[in-house]
Input
Amino acid sequence: MKTLEMEDFLQYKYLSGLNCSPDGRTAAWLVRTADLEKNGYNAALWIQSGDEQKCLAFHIGAGGFCWEDETHLLYHEALAENKNNGSTRLNRVDVVTGEASEAFILPFAASEIAVLDEERLLALSLIDAGEPDAYRMSEEERNAAALRAEKEKDFQVIDELPYRFNGRGYINKRRNALFTVDRSSGTAKRISGALQDVNSYAVMDGKLYYCAETFQTKMLYRQDIFCYDPALDTTRCLYDGGAYQIEYLMPFQGALIFAGGTQERYGYNENPMFYRVDTADGTVTLFSDNPDSLHPAVASDCRLGRTRLSQVCGDQIYYLATRETSVCLMRMDAEGNRTEVIGDEGSVDDFAVCPEMGGILVVGMYDNRLQELYAFDCNGQKRRQISDFNTEILEGKYVASCERIRFPFADYELDGWVLCPADYDPEKTYPAILDIHGGPKMTYGETFYHEMQVWANRGYFVFYCNPVGSDGRGNDFVDMRGKYGTVDYDSLMCFTDTVLARYPQIDPNRLAVTGGSYGGYMTNWMITHTNRFACAASQRSITNWLSFYGTSDLGYNFNTDQMAATPFDGPEQMWNASPLKYAANAKTPTLFIHSDEDYRCPLGEGLQLYTALVDHGVPARMCIFKGENHELSRSGRPRGRLRRLQEITAWIEHYTKSEQKGE
Output
């Protein structure tokens, strides 16, 4: 059997953007692949009509696409950054002939395109609130603006929170804005306010409804709802209560439905519920007291691209929910009653309800395999794999089975898994790696994980679980406010003990631990609270909740919520939960992986604990990835992703392989 190699992810195909034509007879999606030479990703546009699948365009660098009508797609791609904060080319493709042509160029960098009506498109783009109509500038004005920007390039002024955001850089006075675009001429018009940050929109009865927060100093993550009437070219505020963090908005049965929450019960990580908005008077009422997580939270390092979270089809709402260890497709009727439609073990990564094509199409990760396209009937039954994008790359290679372990902890039965090493011989002993997920509101399931499979192929047991605080088990289970480093740590240690007892082939002196984000925090907590691991690899981590408050893009709200304290009224509580406080206890050789543009868990977090370990004589190494951010392991540039895995693997092998242990 062939070995799965680190570099194999360069051949994986990543599917996203699944969407059906207006008549429901043709489906389209994007397929992305890594390009090591250009250190980026290429995108191809695929369609399926009947039983035929074909690629319409290769190497399009597409940011996304929308259906213009039954037979034409519009895909958009960013042009080089220029003096007007970028521009976007829209290309029109005939799905019958495959012929493509340029439609027009937008004078801004669009992140999303949709159809508003027969005359207009919608576009979402970042704007500078100081120059919200820069897209209207003449060539002379653009040149002048470019000169001003050149003179200011060495300075960054901030006067609001958040002032930077992971993956987007400095965002001070930058807002997501909505534009209408004339479908024949390409003429654009901004319709959201200069200081409004738009996060969701829906079209119903010829009108545009959108959610936005207007702020000047501090974003509270609470949106109002607005209605734009293109016929009258007027906007009115439909709901201005600002009580809800709105995840997404949908038109349904003559009203609006949004998924959102007040976070009054369980704080930052509270699962959203569904609310109904009367479009006449803006009254908001509870529509469905949803208990589930509405985010696709089953972890994997083999996805790229956007995921559809909901779709209205007839008198039903379809939406994704994480339940236990799977991402499921749910259905909700006009009374708010919820039914699980697709609950197969695995993950619905994207979906499109297409009755005219026989049911439901899904981009899924099932049977511990990479993404493929699947077809279900209208009731979510009779799953059929209808694509083979990733079949060949795994053919003949060792893919370890996910062996589930249910283990008791406190009042819970928790889920964990073990991957056995390639060529496993129960008469031999092996090193092992504990891998901890991020979040902590994430979850592991039986989905393909490249890094773990690579380690299993290199002779490791790999084990991982969903400790207390993981997603998919309701609000009470996920509520970790003021509990970090307590029940989560204890449940992970309980799982480790369970695995060692179940698999005596694991050498307890050759254990490694790794994890990223919250998993990095917990790795840091472990090396400062136990010496049972031979080595550790801490990735994009938190070490000091006090410094995290003022430097993370969400430090001022996530941090204080999860710590149930602030640096001003509970500094001791925050410091007590900080691994840095206990650095003098550490003996474990530790590798730190961090990106210099990670604004979620900023670089300084890793540097603090790295410095403390070296200062106390503990072997440590720090790898800083320039130009990368918090998403390095999942959507970072290919060379960085490969180097990261090489660094972690080499570090762990140095300290855990029998012939090297103790060196």
Q: What stands out?
A: The chain is about 15% helix and 35% strand.
